[in-house]
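User: My collaborator sent over this chain with a note saying "see what the structure looks like." That's all I know about it. Can you take a look?
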Amino acid sequence: MADSNQIAQDLFSKIENYKVEKISHCLTRLRITFLNEQPDANDIKTIKGVIGVIQNGEEFQIILGVGIVDQVYAQIKNMFDNKQVTPTTIVEPTNNSQNFDDIKKKYRKNYFSQALSKFSKIFAPLIPCFIAAGIITAIATIIQISVPHFNDTGYENSKQWIVAHQWYNFFSLALLAWVGVFLVMVGWRFNEIFNGKPWCGAIMGAMFTSVAGGVYASLYSNNMFLGIPVNSVHWNWLTSGLANFDVDTKSYNVGAPLGSMFGVILACVASIYIERLWSKLIHHSVAFVIVPILTILCLLILNFIIIFPISGYIVYGLSWLFQHITVGQIAPFGDAVLAGLYLILLTFGLSSSLIPIYTLLLSNGGLNTIYPLLGMAGFAQIGAAVALVLSSPKGSNFRKNIGGSIISGFLGIDEPLCYGCSLPRLVPYITSCIAAACAGFFIGGMQAWAGIDMGVNMVYGVDGIWGIFTTTSKFHNNPLFGKMVYCIGITIAMVCGFIFCRIGFRIFKNNKKINWNLN
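Assistant: Without extra context I'll predict from the sequence alone. Here is the result:
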């Protein structure tokens, strides 16, 4: 059986000095399109493991065979993406070498920056969809805040209330479908970027959608899950990662996996390694059929036994932590931590860990004081984005493309700025977290030291500038105090986000490890 790693290295050594436009593969052939100059086809045929070479214009079709071609493709693509150097180009130490360590540093890569860049590439094609989702959210929000008593019970017989809820549910259905497609696309893109099988990543993403949650719910009946007795859905290991909190009954039911995107990423990482393991063990002549079957079966078991539960307990742990650091005199510091970490929770899809806290706050005090607090992270990113716009050249593509993301940020959709602006450049991502923490400290201080609370009287509020309309306060039973705190908070977040990002840019703009990409 041919060594795919050796084939990839030998092939890369023969084509690395040519301008490659495109690399793809089919069932048996690796397809490489060159610009201008081309390598010698006969030279490529001499590589051990290459069955033949067919030249079609600028495209070389290198015949490798079933089960080998996809492995060589993944390794070749990885070599080009990371600008890896083959062993023949590394200078070996000799007695005449004055400073071999300096030579090695030339080839040393910043793997963290590479991983961050790849992670950002996962979401780049999805940003227009995020913006569209923001518009849909805005429409649903207008319905929610414009209809009197929309979130109150006792008005179910009102025609206006019924029509408003029907249209609200109509637009919410579109958002629910978007979330499901988003998870599938994240799985596909993750495996594609990290040289796994895209179809396998898409399947992993599908297993975390609400549609899959309906299937998992059907597996639970009479306190039994897959034939195993379950005393507590919340704490049983098999169902802990599938325990969805029901706001109405204040209890847990089996549903879609917790952890959302965080769980998808864990599953995708596992899928890459498992698929590669089976590819090495199974002969390439039957690998095309056998490897996908074994990979999916292993991942199905692994998800239920390890990945779902781990994601669930991480969510529970975050819920417990935030529940205990946002009360009393430590509220300013707890709110600062919560607001500062929320962007990270959003990035990995762990924001669902706060849902039980929302319900608990409403039950105990009648006011959800955390939900509007989390919006500070989005406004901090807006400030950072404006700072980057001023730092970018006039007429740059960055300036042309960032406008839609900023508008989405004002509407309460933070993902376009996160995945398309802050995260790829790292520094504005960190400064946004710090700026949000500053706003959170102010909001917590107003509650703990001035007695002016701020929140919403519902489990789920509305985000962005719409929060001004729904934010209220119990201080003297006057909602204007809540709106005042919210407006000052978002102002602090934007101003601090702007200032901190400007400072960060000036300090790190010449750091070659950070790809600012503002052109």
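A starting point for your reply to your collaborator: Strands lie at 20-25, 29-34, 52-56, 59-63, 220-221, 224-225, 228-229, 243-246, 251-254.
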